[in-house]
Amino acid sequence: MRNFAKNLGRTALVVTAMTLGLSFGAKAEQEIKIGYALATTSHYGVAANNWQEVVESGTDKRFVFRHFPSSGLGGEREVLEGLQIGTVEATIVSSGTLSNFVPEAGVFDIPFLFRDLAHARGVLDGPIGQEILGKFESANLIALAWGEQGFRHITNNRNAIEKPDDVAGLKLRTMENPIHITAFNTLGAAPTPMAWPEVIGALQQGTIDGQENPLSVITSAKLSEVQKHLTVSGHVYSPAMLLVSPDLWNSLSDEDKEVFKKGAAEAVVAMRAFVDDVEKSGVEQLKKEGMTVGELTAEQKAEFQKALAPAYEEYYKTYGKELIDGIIAAK
Ligand code: PAF
Q1: What percent of the chain has pLDDT over 90?
Q2: Closest listed residue to residue 74, CA positions, set 36, 41, 48
Q3: Model confidence pLDDT, tens digit, residues 273-295
Q4: What's the domain range around 44?
Q5: Domain holding 166: CATH number?
């Protein structure tokens, strides 16, 4: 009788546990909310998928990613703040607002700093880039890797751009990025800093004439539907960053930290491959979609660089001439 009662008690416990979804032996899953500004088919989506695959398989699905693409968790600044307070676990962001968290990160936003993608990748993966990545911890953010978007180009509905005078008074949306704002003010444009979720609406309503972003963004956000002119200006490299929240990071074992880092590194490889492809095919695609495209020649780019000399004086004061020259000269 005693055994019967004991067995009955056990059975009841098992049934209750199963009803609650806590079957014995099952591992608890932790959801990783990952927010990013663009579609799942963009370079961010591709990177987030790669990150997810490595983490989920490397932890036997103890961590499961849930995507919030297309600014589903708000603008990039809001998502970074979410990471700081622990309401979001992971993100991939542009350098738009990063220098507001770690001022040193802004050095990579200086126009005409990098010759090409290989130059930028070398510096970001090298000691200067890695040192800046490490500074995010003191801003209550864990930066795991530099990603990228490509070189930024100008799109607008007012006129084709061939020389600095062509941007005079142009109402150009910029990221909330002081380095970019200084550059476009120096060129005589009317920079309008704005969070990304507002940009398409503002272009449709005509409250701004244009914006600037890499081909990866111009194609994936379908900007050809709201913009006439594309100027392949390549005026500035656009880094991205993969970050996690300190709450998540501090809860991980050393082994799991390595899995998250490995996933971020593989995500960067996928993101860079995506950017390589779109840098080759993006202009043709945008022409087919009806945009008028002009590419700045080396001489025309030199005119813009000359016009930016006063901005460079500001950048030297902020970051030091030695650092800037060192980055420019890096092989
Ligand atoms: O222009 C921006 O704000 C960024 O490049 C974007 C489109 C949000 C991607 O990070």
Answers
A1: 91
A2: 36
A3: 999 999 999 999 999 999 999 99
A4: 29-329
A5: 3.40.190.170
Residue 5: inside a domain? no
Ligand 1: residue of 36, 80, 109, 149 to mutate (most ligand atoms within 8 A of CB) is 149
Express each pLDDT in 142-161 by its tens digit.
999 999 999 999 999 999 99
Q: How far apart are CA 206 and CA 319, in angstroms?
A: 36
pLDDT at 28: 83
Any ligand 1 atom below 6 A from CB of 223: no
Q: Mean pLDDT for the chain?
A: 94
CB-ligand 1 contact for 196 (6 Å cutoff): yes
In a domain, 22, yes or no: no
In the chain, how many domains are there?
Answer: 1
Distance 144 CA to ligand 1 centre (A): 19
Question: Is the minimum distance from the CB of 95 to ligand 1 under 6 angstroms?
Answer: no
Residue 24's H or E segment, with its range, is none
Q: Quote the ligand 1 centre to 218 CA distance (angstroms).
A: 10
For residue 325 the two structure tokens come to: 């020259």
In a domain, 21, yes or no: no
Atom of ligand 1 nearest to the CA of 37: 8
pTM higher than 0.90, yes or no?
Answer: yes
Q: Indicate whether 236 belongs to any domain.
A: yes
The per-residue pLDDT for 138 is 98
Contact (Cβ atoms closer than 8 angstroms) between residue 175 and residue 193:
yes
Can you tell me which atom of ligand 1 is nearest the CA of 94?
A: 10
What is the rounded average pLDDT of the residues 60-78? 98
Handedness of CA 222, 299, 108, 148 (dihedral sign): positive
